[in-house]
Design a protein that fits this description.
- This protein is 53% helix and 0% strand.
- It has 70 residues and is mainly alpha-helical.
- It is flat.
């Protein structure tokens, strides 16, 4: 992820923004991305969910969190 290096425009200057970007990366990696060796997502393999998540589902979680916090 380019957010870890200082030589790009995507570098996170705030720790909070960096933490959010890393959390989104791990969410996509574990819930959306089908892994070649598993043939499913790690979350399905672990029994956490029963389907491959879409980006829209992740965004809806973010929207729900913001509406609860506001």
């Amino acid at each position: 992820m380019r957010r870890f290096t200082r030589l790009t425009n995507a570098f996170s200057k705030k720790v909070e923004n960096h933490a959010h970007a890393v959390a989104l990366h791990f969410m996509h990696y574990n819930f959306c991305r089908v892994h070649q060796t598993l043939r499913v997502t790690p979350a399905i393999e672990a029994g956490i969910t029963d389907h491959i998540w879409t980006i829209e589902e992740i965004i809806s979680l973010l929207d729900a969190e913001q509406s609860l916090g506001a």
